[in-house]
Amino acid sequence: MTFESMWRDLAPIGRSSASGGYFRQPWAGAELELRAWFREQADARGLTLEEDPFGNLVAWWSPGSRDGRQGDLLDHRGAVLTGSHLDQRGAVLTGSHLDSVLDGGAFDGPLGVVSAFAAVDLLRDRGVTPGRALGIAAFVEEEGSRFGRACLGSRLATGAARWEDARSLADRDGVLLGDVVAGGDPTPWLDRVGCFVELHVEQGRGLVDHESPVGMASGIWPHGRWRYDVRGRADHAGTTRMADRADPMLTFAMTALAANKQARLTDQRATFGRVEVAPNGTNAVPSRVTGWLDARAETEADLESLVTAIEKLAGERADRDGTTLEVTAESVSAAVSFDDALRERIGGGLPVLPTQAGHDAGILQDAGIPTAMLFVRNPTGVSHSPDEHAEAGDCVAGVDALADLLMRALGESP
């Protein structure tokens, strides 16, 4: 199948008729449909399918095989690979994720998966017979949109997160992660991976400035998520005098403004994008406001300084409002520098730029797997939004570039 035909197949899955955005949350209807599509694509190409205990999927193209038809279905329940053709270290891995943020765009994640299948088709058209295994991965819960932990599937697969801690994560309806996926100890499928190349839509406008349809990432800014729990006293919105209130909404509102100001002063990033209010009544002063801070900065020192400044200002405001503040770091990711040697070996002179967005590629690089990222131009830079976009011609150019990079990683000449 061509890139265009696969993209058309995915376009309606999980799309909101109201906003045009996508709701592809992990282990829910639309994402499960995408996982079924992934299995169908793997089967149509004769690729060996593997699923780990956390729901990460990988489809393997066997070394020494033109059509890939050498393996059996694998999963964490005990099915075993036939032969030793996948038991070889130094395999090349590509792919991305299929889930989305709430009301997100079409390209973030699925573009990398569709492009990976299209790149395999292109390599076969070129007559490539890989000397080592090539895998296409679909990592689960990359966005953290359901269970609140970004890159959760890759963190669990690499051991960066422990199942004992993750299994009790709950979604907004109180459903536990351990109730929707088996979990357990990580299976060693990543141990045989020698390098990872992830293609992703650019989440900014750097490639517009470079006048290039594709580019490569140098690294990822350090970033994290912090939960701010502000508690006050529930009261009547009409009868309670303003001076007598302990209103957590005031504390939170000033905290959001302080975060914006501190980030702007230092040219970093700070966002409160999710808020929960209790009792959430129109005619009541709330008793609790919980907000989640997403903060990102150019260096780890800058990130620590930014987060510390926001928390200090929030605490001072809480003292004035008669409220209490508790800040909990839910996830923090250090700066990532992608493998320079790998990028120089396979990059082919593409423009190189940093990214402020987190990716599974960063988790694998931190786990010691040499990793590179390929970006496809985003004409407006808009992402995590229904307006996220990439031109069809740029997407096809991304497939061509990915195929070239994979050939070099496999030791072939494009």
Helical content band? 25-40%
Number of helices: 11
CATH superfamily of the largest domain: Zn peptidases
H and E string: HHEEEHEHHEHEEEHEEEHEEHEHEH
**CATH structural class of the largest domain:** Alpha Beta
CATH architecture of the largest domain: 3-Layer(aba) Sandwich
**End-to-end gap:** 21 Å
Radius of gyration: 23 Å
Spans where pLDDT lies below 50 across 5 or more residues: 69-88
Q: Which class best fits the helix and strand makeup? A: alpha/beta
Shape: elongated
**Total beta-strand segments:** 15
Keywords: Hydrolase
Pfam families: M20_dimer, Peptidase_M20
Family: Belongs to the peptidase M20 family.
Protein name: Allantoate amidohydrolase
Explain the overall architecture.
The chain is elongated. With 414 residues, the chain is an alpha/beta fold. The chain has two domains: 3-221 and 335-409, Aminopeptidase; 223-333, 2-Layer Sandwich (Alpha-Beta Plaits), CATH 3.30.70. The longest helix has 22 residues, at 300-321. It contains eleven helices and 15 strands. The strands form three sheets. Strands 1, 2, 3, 4, 5, 6, 13, 14 and 15 form a nine-stranded mixed beta sheet that branches. The protein has a four-stranded antiparallel beta sheet with strand order 9-11-7-12, with helices on one face. It has a two-stranded antiparallel sheet with strand order 8-10.
